[in-house]
Write a structure and sequence with these properties.
GMP Synthetase, Chain A, domain 3; single chain; Rossmann fold; alpha/beta; five-stranded parallel beta sheet; 4 domains; 20 helices
Length: 424
């Protein structure tokens, strides 16, 4: 009786408002708003639909809930709502939530489609072992420049992995999380992502700067790892070089196996053209005049096939020069080389030419200096002008520093050697 009187005296909506004022709006909408709130025996009770939600809310927001409850002379309690309790005629009843994933075409990619250079033999082997469950690296973090084959490897794991697999792009995760919030099916969405054997997220860098989405994703990773599930992530840069993520996120991404995918070298590019039916001589010529980007090469292959089918002519060097004039590199100017390296190293051209002194940015800038020194006849002062107007002494110091680091950093040495080969 006393509890009933107290409930009438206290406006539960006002309590929610007070809590909302102390939290990020997206986090409140995702975690607190869907909960049922009531008062029982001097307790401000927050009823969660499952144990995961109760544990997360209790661990993350207990201070806020207790502070607000104390203002009314109550203690805050979070518990799991009885699934067999009387159903409420309420459209937001979390016990009846359902999440319908958008239809996605199943890729027919497989590991045979990935042409592995010597640099990529390790990551290809790791992906095969993960797919067959011969080994567990959770998360397996795959990174590299656009067009190097990250998505192809992720699709191949998705096709070959045993058990239930969910694969989403970073953009899809952001939009589906927002849709679940709007439709009040957030708990069903959480269950959908967690009830898997393998979870794959392609292009994790898309989550950068999206605070609520990133928090939800990090908690998902923690829960999946705790349950012994396999996680595969892809990105355009190594965890320590991803911008827009805090140290906690970067360390979690790097807590499993981190491996880079090298962009297609000349031999791989040549093999890609040969597999498309291009003569060996022409394939070698084209391989030397295209960027190390699998997307661009796929577009060239499509154009060659389309021309052959439509015109009924066999592609030779003269025809290739004519129909591929927009794709073949005519000359490699220093500024184009720098912009290409920016993409490979996961930094922006504006940042390289700016005054930023972040460690990852400075390192990338100095690596570019080394490459320019080896593939051009530019003086040190001229090299400095292409990376933001650095003077002769700064370029000399940067080149000397990178050449020393390469002796012990084999990954960096491989990256630089690969870029030098490409831009010669």
């Amino acid at each position: 009786m006393q509890a009933a009187i107290l409930t009438k005296q206290i406006d539960l909506d006002a309590i929610k408002t007070k809590i909302a004022e102390r939290m990020d709006a997206a986090c409140f909408s995702a975690w607190i708003s869907p909960l049922t709130i009531k008062i029982s025996d001097n307790q401000l009770v927050f009823a969660a639909p499952n144990q995961f939600t109760a544990d997360y809310v209790g661990a993350t927001y207990s201070n806020i809930l207790n502070d607000v409850a104390a203002e009314y002379g109550l203690n805050a309690t979070v518990y799991v709502e009885n699934m067999h309790s009387v159903r409420r005629e309420n459209a937001n009843d979390n016990n009846t939530q359902t999440y319908t994933a958008p239809m996605a075409e199943k890729s027919d990619d497989n590991f045979d489609a990935f042409i592995a250079s010597e640099e990529n033999a390790f990551i290809l082997s790791a992906c095969k072992k993960v797919a067959s469950k011969a080994a567990t690296f959770s998360p397996l973090f795959i990174y590299g420049p656009a067009g190097c084959g990250k998505t192809l490897l992720a699709n191949s794991i998705n096709a070959a992995a045993r058990g239930r697999t969910v694969m989403m792009s970073g953009a899809a995760f952001v939009s589906e999380f927002a849709r679940a919030l709007q439709n009040k099916t957030i708990f069903a969405f959480k269950d959908y992502c967690r009830n898997v054997d393998t979870f794959i997220l392609d292009d994790v860098q898309v989550l950068a700067g999206k605070r609520a989405t990133c928090e939800e994703f990090l908690q998902l990773l923690v829960d999946l790892r705790g349950a012994g599930k396999q996680i595969i992530l892809t990105a355009n840069a190594a965890p320590s070089n991803l911008t827009g993520f805090d140290h906690r996120a970067q360390s979690l991404f790097a807590s499993g196996l981190v491996a880079d995918v090298a962009a297609p070298n000349r031999a791989v590019r040549c093999e890609m053209f040969r597999r498309a039916g291009v003569d060996a001589g022409l394939a070698d010529t084209l391989a030397g005049r295209v960027m190390s980007n699998g997307h661009i090469i796929s577009g060239i292959v499509t154009k060659i096939k389309a021309y052959g089918e439509i015109m009924g002519e066999k592609i030779n060097a003269s025809i290739a020069e004519k129909i591929l004039s927009d794709s073949l590199q005519k000359s490699k100017s220093p500024i184009l080389i720098v912009k290409s390296m920016c993409e490979k190293l996961g930094v922006s051209y504006d940042a390289v030419c700016g005054n930023g002194r972040a460690r990852a940015l400075v390192l990338a800038r100095q690596m570019m200096m080394v490459v320019l020194k080896n593939v051009t006849t530019l003086s040190l002062s001229e090299i400095g002008s292409y990376v933001g107007g650095r003077d002769h002494a700064t370029v000399m110091y940067g080149i000397d520093r990178i050449e020393k680091i390469q002796d012990s950093d084999l990954v960096m040495a491989s990256q630089i050697a690969q870029m030098i080969e490409e831009y010669k």
